[in-house]
Design goal:
single chain; about 475 residues; nine-stranded mixed sheet; 9 helices; binds zinc ion
Length: about 475
C-alpha cells in the first residue's frame, strides 16, 4: 500500500514537471461589435460632452477588442471597449462573472477607450442632468458582448511568440493637445504583438498610447470609434489578427481638440480640418504607422518568463458634491461604502453648485475600485481607474499660485516605482472615476491656477482631491511586492 502511494506521487511529479520548469507562451484574441442600433422611436444618448446629444446614425462600428496571454499557469485577458467608461461596480464585476462561468481561472482587465462618440454607459449624459442616459438593455448586451470577446480570446489560446517595443517622438506628443497647465504629456506608444508559433501568423497587435477619442467634438451625432477605429483597422489590414488599443494617462487634458499644429493625413498629404472624420482617421493612421515603426525593433519575450499578477481593491471617497447628488439619485448607479460596508444613507441639501435646489446627497461615502499590476519579462503594466494626469505617471508637478493646496506633498510618480523596461499605463482600467489630479495642482476655488482669468477645468469631473494619493500609493504598494527581475 505504501509502495503504491509513493509510486503514484512520483508519477504526478513527473507529469507536472515540464510545465513547472518551462512554459511556452500562448496567446488568443477576439473582438465583438458593440454598435447600438439606431432606429426610429429609439433614442441613443451619446456620451462625453453635454446632455441630450442623441445619435442620428453610425459612421463606423464600435468594438470590444480582447487579447489573452498565458504562461501555462496564469492566464490574463485585457478587453477594451470603445465606450466612454465602465464602472468597477456593477459593470466590471458582472463582466468577470460572465467570463468565469464559461472560462474560469482567468484574470480579466476591462478598460474603455473613453470614446466620446458612443452610447452613454455611465448615466451622465441623458436628456437632462438628473436623468440617466443609460439604456439598460444596451448595457446588458454590452456586458455580454465584452464577456464573449474575452471568452473567445481565451478559447483561442495557442502556442505563440510575443514581442514588444516602445517609441516616443515629437509628432506623437503634438497629436496630444494639452488643455491644462502644466503641459506635461505622456507621448510613449507601447506595442506588443503575438504571432502563432507554428505559422508566424499574427494573433494580435496591442497598442497603448494616450489621447481623448473626442476628435469630432460635441456637435457630432454619429456613432464612431474615433481615431481608435482607424488605428485598429489599419493594423488589422497590415498584420491580420485582432488589433487592441488601450488609452493611458489622458487627464489634464490630453486630446485632439487642443492640438496646435496642422494634422496632415498620412495617405493624402492634405491638412485635415479640426473636428472632422478625416482628422480622426489621420490621428489613427499616424499612431498605427508609429506602432509599425516600433515593431521593426521589437524584442522577444523569453518563453521562460512568467506572469506576475498583483490585485488590490481599495476605496475612493466621493467628495465631489455633484457626483454625490448623482449617486444619491441613482444616476451614478453603483454601491457606496463606509468603512468597507455598503451604506446607502443620504441627506437632503440645498446645493448652490446646482442652482440652489434642494436635492438628496450621498454623505461622502466611498466607491470601491481595484488596481492591478501585471509583470512579465521586460513588461510591467499598471491599471489606473480613470483619467490620470500625466504628472502622476511621469513627474513634472508644478506649484502654481492660485492652487487650493499650494503646500500639498507630491504624490509618488508611478513610473519611478515601476521596475521593468516597458512601463505601461492602462487608463480607465477596471473603472472610470474621472480625473485623477495631483493635490498640489487642485484648483476648485478662485484665484485660479497661475492667476488665469477663468475657472480651471477638471475638478468638476473628479471624485475628489484624495483620489491621486490613494491610486498612486496603492500602486506603489503593489509594485513593491513584485519580485526583482
Ligand atoms: Zn475625459
Amino acid at each position: 500500500m505504501i509502495r503504491r502511494v509513493v509510486l503514484f506521487t512520483f508519477a504526478v511529479l513527473l507529469t507536472s514537471l515540464p510545465t513547472a520548469a518551462h512554459a511556452d507562451w500562448r496567446a488568443g484574441a477576439a473582438k465583438r461589435d458593440i454598435t447600438p442600433n439606431i432606429e426610429p422611436g429609439k433614442v441613443v444618448y451619446v456620451a462625453g460632452f453635454g446632455n441630450n446629444r442623441t445619435a442620428t446614425g453610425i459612421h463606423d462600428p464600435i468594438w470590444a477588442r480582447a487579447f489573452a496571454i498565458s504562461d501555462g499557469q496564469r492566464t490574463i485577458a485585457l478587453v477594451v471597449a470603445d465606450v466612454i467608461g465602465l464602472f468597477y461596480e456593477p459593470d466590471i464585476v458582472r463582466i468577470r462573472q460572465l467570463v468565469a462561468a464559461r472560462t474560469p481561472g482567468v484574470h480579466v482587465i476591462v478598460a474603455s477607450t473613453h470614446n466620446h462618440n458612443s452610447p452613454d454607459t455611465m448615466g451622465l449624459w441623458g436628456p437632462a442632468p438628473l436623468i440617466s442616459g443609460i439604456n439598460p438593455q444596451y448595457q446588458q448586451w454590452l456586458r455580454q458582448q465584452i464577456a464573449d470577446a474575452v471568452v473567445e480570446s481565451v478559447r483561442q489560446l495557442r502556442p505563440a511568440r510575443l514581442r514588444v517595443a516602445a517609441i516616443t517622438n515629437r509628432h506623437l506628443a503634438d497629436l496630444q493637445g494639452d488643455g491644462r497647465i502644466p503641459f506635461v504629456k505622456d507621448p510613449q506608444l507601447f506595442v506588443m504583438q503575438a504571432t502563432e508559433k507554428e505559422t508566424d501568423k499574427t494573433i494580435f497587435t496591442f497598442v497603448q498610447w494616450s489621447d481623448h477619442p473626442e476628435t469630432l467634438g460635441g456637435k457630432n451625432r454619429l456613432i464612431t470609434a474615433d481615431y481608435c477605429g482607424a488605428l485598429c483597422s489599419e493594423l488589422e489590414e497590415r498584420y491580420g489578427g485582432v488589433a487592441v488599443y488601450a488609452n493611458g494617462a489622458i487627464g489634464g487634458l490630453l486630446g485632439p481638440l487642443d492640438i496646435h499644429v496642422p494634422v496632415r493625413h498620412p495617405k493624402t498629404g492634405q491638412i485635415t480640418r479640426p473636428r472632422s472624420f478625416e482628422q480622426a482617421e489621420a490621428i489613427g493612421l499616424w499612431v498605427a504607422k508609429y506602432a509599425q515603426d516600433a515593431l521593426q525593433n521589437a524584442e522577444p519575450i523569453a518563453d521562460t518568463s512568467r506572469i506576475d499578477l498583483r490585485v488590490k481593491q481599495t476605496y475612493i471617497p466621493l467628495e465631489n458634491i455633484r457626483f454625490r447628488a448623482l449617486a444619491a439619485a441613482g444616476i451614478i448607479d453603483r454601491p457606496l461604502y463606509t468603512n468597507g460596508k455598503p451604506d446607502r444613507r443620504r441627506e437632503v441639501r440645498k446645493l448652490p453648485e446646482l442652482g440652489g435646489v434642494k436635492l438628496p446627497v450621498a454623505l461622502g461615502q466611498a466607491l470601491r475600485t481595484e488596481l492591478n499590476v501585471v509583470t512579465f519579462g521586460p513588461v510591467q503594466m499598471v491599471t489606473v481607474p480613470g483619467e490620470l494626469y500625466p504628472e502622476l505617471a511621469n513627474g513634472g508637478y508644478v506649484r502654481y499660485p492660485g492652487a487650493d493646496y499650494p503646500d500639498a506633498p507630491f504624490e509618488p510618480v508611478i513610473r519611478e516605482h515601476m521596475t521593468r523596461k516597458y512601463k505601461v499605463i492602462i487608463g480607465l482600467g477596471n473603472d472610470e472615476l474621472g480625473y485623477i489630479i495631483p493635490r498640489c495642482e487642485w484648483d476648485n476655488r478662485a484665484p485660479w491656477l497661475n492667476n488665469q482669468p477663468s475657472e480651471t477645468y477638471g475638478e468638476i469631473n473628479s471624485c475628489g482631491v484624495q483620489v491621486a494619493r490613494i491610486v498612486t500609493e496603492t500602486l506603489v504598494e503593489l509594485l513593491r511586492a513584485v519580485p526583482a527581475p
